[in-house]
């Protein structure tokens, strides 16, 4: 099976602080990514803002609570809410995370790590397939930043991610910052990760900032993308080609222009790398 | 090796059973499974998740109940949210619902018994959250009332917008809300006073206002889908009979200015009302 999504360019996450730009006509960006759960409500300003956003630019939905790796039953009410949101806003695609976040009916509201075992692999593949059947569309799954690994894991994360994408026939949202954070926290080579992910499954890239906590890196999304992550992004563009790329900034959110400048930097890097590749091939 | 489900149960219990409790609450069976390479040992790694769990949920409650948090201060609010999360871990995929039991929880807590109004203050903050994302509706405008003929008034019925709630309290909770927002609340000076508030959204802004007895009676009539004439008759128990219709008219104008009324889609005879 194949996986394709349209190329949207370089976008930013839609955050409450920037809603006024939607009404002022100053939200000039290639595309927006909206957090699905923030719009699973019945009315009010967020839904009006999302309506406005999709008038301005293409929209995708990114979830944080699907809990794909959980051993609880899939939350059908949640999936139905997501389906309703999809029907109303017609996003270009829908994504969530390769993790778990709930057990016994309780939600951690965090992206908790999975062991990379055959049991977990079979479980997540089945869940992704069930979600895709329920939503009637393929989804993208995103690699998360992690702070621990399990001693009984049998494969590196990128092999786990690759196997799920191929067996469940879904796409990959590759978070380059998360690769860098996890690589530092666990001591693997981030370039090996980029090279291990199948190019034909990658539909979107995330870029974000993180915090250096001394003994580890913490995925805070509260600052600009750092130089080593930009370098990894260069490698990703060389490896995967032109992929829709999004700047995530969730805390200490700056002016909209700062976000757009980060998106423009990503565009510049993409252009440079693609021109370099073209020159080499010519 | 434990099953995936057993692993997840151990993990969740380790980070959530005692919110903010630290490594003493970690399941040894989980610690044993976590790799401890590099600068961090297994417990330190699990503790990152334990810290995130509590910090994130605490922050959501602080954002949903800013005035309760201001009254209790950092340490007091932190202690209460730890207890709350231990009793009421999140059961919904959206954080929007995390604080739904918080007001009732505060009513029962001995550590805040010296602040007996605190539960109702939380109730007001939560009610404001609920109307904030209640369904949208197009409110009636003043021009609609002006277009009515005199013989249409007695049978006239209204309904309230979905983003509208009434809150009853034994405390002047609107005054406590205002004082807490300005950090001018004298905790010991709050006096019991039966208070009825209406809480509503107009556009994207949320408001609340105290209601006097006639407004409460009239609003109860509207909620019961009573016609204008019946509501006026009910008001006669509180205002002179000759002033009842005028009082009701004033209330209607106020409610329309606040954007809280929509017209019932059908009148008593089952025929469709003309749209304003």
Quick description:
Chain A has helices at residues 19-24, 45-56, 76-89, 118-135, 157-168, 176-186, 190-196, 227-240, 256-281, and strands at 10-13, 32-35, 59-62, 94-97, 100-103, 106-112, 140-142, 171-175, 202-208, 211-212, 217-218, 244-248.
Task: Tell me what you see in this structure.
The complex is a heterodimer of chains A (282) and B (276). Chain A has 282 residues and is an alpha/beta fold. Chain A has one domain (10-281): Alpha-Beta Barrel (TIM Barrel), CATH 3.20.20.150. Chain A has helices spanning 19-24, 45-56, 76-89, 118-135, 157-168, 176-186, 190-196, 227-240, 256-281, and strands at 10-13, 32-35, 59-62, 94-97, 100-103, 106-112, 140-142, 171-175, 202-208, 211-212, 217-218, 244-248. In chain A, helix 1 links the parallel strand 1 (10-13) and strand 2 (32-35). Chain A is globular. Chain B has two domains: 1-114, no CATH class; 137-276, Outer Surface Protein A, domain 3. Chain B has eleven helices and five strands. In chain B, the strands form two sheets. Chain B has a three-stranded antiparallel sheet, with helices on one face. In chain B, strands 1-5 form a two-stranded antiparallel sheet. In chain B, a hairpin with a 2-residue loop joins strand 3 and strand 4 (205-210). The chains are: A alpha/beta (282), B mainly alpha (276). At the A-B interface, helix 2, strand 5, strand 6 and helix 4 of A face helix 1 and helix 3 of B.
Output the radius of gyration of chain B: 25 Å
Name the CATH class of chain A: Alpha Beta
Supply the CATH class of the largest domain in chain B: Alpha Beta
Measure the end-to-end span of chain A: 31 Å
The chain-level structural class of chain B is mainly alpha
Largest sheet of chain B: 3 strands, antiparallel
- Name the pair of protein chains with the most residues at their interface, and give those residue counts: A-B, 47 and 46 residues
Order of strands in the sheet with most strands of chain A: 1-2-3-4-7-8-9-12
Shape of chain B: elongated
Helical content of chain B, roughly?
Answer: 40-55%
Low-confidence stretches of chain B: 267-276
Summed over residues and divided by their number, the pLDDT of chain B gives a mean of 92
In what order do the strands lie side by side in the largest sheet of chain B?
A: 2-3-4
Say which CATH homologous superfamily of chain A is assigned.
Answer: Divalent-metal-dependent TIM barrel enzymes
Q: Could you say what the CATH architecture of chain A is?
A: Alpha-Beta Barrel
General shape of chain A: globular
- Secondary structure: number of strands of chain B: 5
User: What is the chain-wise order of helices and strands of chain A?
Assistant: EHEHEHEEEHEHEHHEEEHEH
Proportion in helices of chain A: 40-55%
């Amino acid at each position: 099976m194949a996986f394709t999504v349209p190329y949207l360019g370089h976008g930013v996450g839609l955050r409450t602080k920037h809603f006024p730009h939607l009404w002022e006509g100053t939200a000039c960006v290639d595309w927006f990514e909206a957090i699905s759960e923030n719009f699973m409500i019945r009315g009010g300003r967020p839904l009006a803002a999302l309506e406005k956003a999709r008038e301005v630019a293409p929209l995708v939905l990114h979830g944080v609570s699907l809990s794909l790796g959980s051993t609880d039953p899939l939350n059908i009410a949640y999936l139905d809410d997501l389906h309703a949101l999809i029907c109303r806003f017609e996003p270009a695609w829908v994504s969530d995370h390769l993790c778990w976040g709930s057990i016994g009916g309780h939600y951690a509201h965090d992206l908790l790590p999975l062991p990379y075992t055959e049991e977990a692999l079979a479980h997540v593949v089945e869940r992704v397939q069930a979600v895709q059947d329920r939503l009637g569309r393929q989804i993208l799954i995103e690699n998360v930043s992690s702070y621990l690994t399990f001693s009984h894991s049998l494969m590196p994360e990128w092999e786990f991610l690759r196997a799920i994408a191929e067996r469940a026939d879904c796409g990959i949202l590759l978070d380059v910052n998360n690769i860098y954070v996890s690589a530092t926290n666990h001591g693997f080579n981030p370039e090996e990760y980029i090279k291990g992910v199948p190019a034909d499954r990658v539909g979107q890239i995330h870029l974000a900032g993180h915090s250096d906590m001394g003994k580890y890196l913490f995925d805070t999304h509260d600052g600009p993308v750092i130089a080593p992550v930009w370098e990894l992004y260069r490698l990703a563009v060389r490896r995967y080609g032109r992929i829709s790329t999004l700047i995530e900034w969730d805390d200490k959110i700056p002016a909209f222009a700062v976000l757009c400048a980060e998106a423009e930097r990503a565009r510049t890097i993409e252009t440079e790398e693609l021109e370099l590749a073209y020159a080499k091939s010519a | 090796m434990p099953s995936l489900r057993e692993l997840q149960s151990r993990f969740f219990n380790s980070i959530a059973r005692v919110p903010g409790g630290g490594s003493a609450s970690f399941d040894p069976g989980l610690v044993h499974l976590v790799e401890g390479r590099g600068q961090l040992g297994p417990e330190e790694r699990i503790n990152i998740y334990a810290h995130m769990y509590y910090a994130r949920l605490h922050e959501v409650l602080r954002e949903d109940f800013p005035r309760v948090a201001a009254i209790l201060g950092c340490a007091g609010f932190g202690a209460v949210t730890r207890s709350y999360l231990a009793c009421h871990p999140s059961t919904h995929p959206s954080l929007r619902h995390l604080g739904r039991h918080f007001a009732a929880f505060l009513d029962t807590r001995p550590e805040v018994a010296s602040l007996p109004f605190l539960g109702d203050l939380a109730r007001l903050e939560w009610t404001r959250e609920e109307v904030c994302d209640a369904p949208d509706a197009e409110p009636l405008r003043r021009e609609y009332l002006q277009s009515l003929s005199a013989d249409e008034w007695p049978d006239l019925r209204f309904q309230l917008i979905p983003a509208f709630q009434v809150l009853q309290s034994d405390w002047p909770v609107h005054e406590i809300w205002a004082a807490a927002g300005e950090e001018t609340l004298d905790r010991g000076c709050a006096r019991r006073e039966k208070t009825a508030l209406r809480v509503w959204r107009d556009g994207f802004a949320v408001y609340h206002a105290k209601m006097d007895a006639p407004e409460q009676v009239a609003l109860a009539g509207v909620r019961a889908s009573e016609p204008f004439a019946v509501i006026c008759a009910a008001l006669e128990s509180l205002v002179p009979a000759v002033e009842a219709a005028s009082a009701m008219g004033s209330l209607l104008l106020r409610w329309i200015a606040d954007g809280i009324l929509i017209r019932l889609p059908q009148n008593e005879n089952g025929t469709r009302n003309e749209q304003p």
